[in-house]
Description:
Layout: H1 2-16, H2 18-21, E1 55-65, E2 69-79, E3 88-89, E4 98-104, H3 115-123, E5 127-131, H4 150-163, E6 176-186, H5 188-195, E7 207-211, E8 229-234, H6 242-251, E9 256-261, H7 268-271, H8 275-293, H9 296-307, E10 313-317
Parallel strand pairs: 1-3, 4-5, 4-6, 6-7, 7-8, 8-9
Antiparallel strand pairs: 1-2, 2-5, 9-10
Helix pairs in contact: 8-9
Amino acid sequence: xxxxxxxxxxxxxxxxxxxxxxxxxxxxxxxxxxxxxxxxxxxxxxxxxxxxxxxxxxxxxxxxxxxxxxxxxxxxxxxxxxxxxxxxxxxxxxxxxxxxxxxxxxxxxxxxxxxxxxxxxxxxxxxxxxxxxxxxxxxxxxxxxxxxxxxxxxxxxxxxxxxxxxxxxxxxxxxxxxxxxxxxxxxxxxxxxxxxxxxxxxxxxxxxxxxxxxxxxxxxxxxxxxxxxxxxxxxxxxxxxxxxxxxxxxxxxxxxxxxxxxxxxxxxxxxxxxxxxxxxxxxxxxxxxxxxxxxxxxxxxxxxxxxxxxxxxxxxxx
Length: 318
C-alpha cells in the first residue's frame, strides 16, 4: 500500500509537469547542516585525474533485463585521436583505465538528448553509459510509475557494462576502472539516481549527481557506505520545485554540495551549449575527478568553477 501511494505521488508530479519534463525536438541539440555518515566512505586512493582532454567515441549496447525490459545503452568513452571533435562511432578506446558513470534520462527523453554534457564527461576521462528506459524514454508509453523499476534497470546495466572489462575482444576490455563507479540522472532520472542510494542502494556506487530530482517514491533513507552527492537544480524549475530538490539534499547524511542556478529552469542548462552548461559541466567534472580519481586538487577547484560568471551558487559540504 505504501509503495502504491508513493507511485501515485510520482504520477501526480510528473503528469502535471509532463510538457516541461519531456525533451522537445527543438531542444535536442543541443547553507545546510550535514550530519555525519554512520559508515565511512571508502575513498579511492589519492591520485590525479587526466589533465588532457580525449577524443570521444560512442557505441550502442543492446541489453534486456528479464527478457521483457529492453534497455538499449549508449556508451560514450575516451577515444584515441584529436580531442574536440564530435563523438565518433566505434572509435578505438584511449589507453588507460577509466571510471564508469551511469546516467539516467528524464521523462520522454533519450540519452542522446544529453550528449553535450555526457560527451564532456567522456572527454575528461570517464566512460558514460546511459540506458533508454522502456516506458519513460522516447517511444515508450509514458508510464511514469515505471520510474520505480528504473534503479534496478541501472544496476543491471551497470553489471553488463562492467563485464565488458573482461570480455574477450570487446573494445573496452581492460579499459574500465570497475572499482570506481558513480550514477547521475535528470528529472525522472534524478528520482532513479536517488533510488540507487536509498531503497535500491547499489553498493558499487561511490558518488552521485542529481539534476532536478525529487525523492517521491524512493524516499530519503540513504543507505550503505557514504557516497558524496552533488545536486544541481534551477531555482526557476517549472516541473520539480527547487524546494523539493533542496529537501532531498538536506536529507543526505554524507559529504554533499548543491549547485543552484538562480535563473535555471528544469533542464535547458543540460541541453543547450551555453554559459550555464559550461558551469554545470566544469563543476560536475571536478566533482567526478575528486570522487572517482581521488584528485584532491579537483575538489579545491570545484568552488571556483561553480561560481564562475555569477551564474550559480554552491552550498558546499564536501
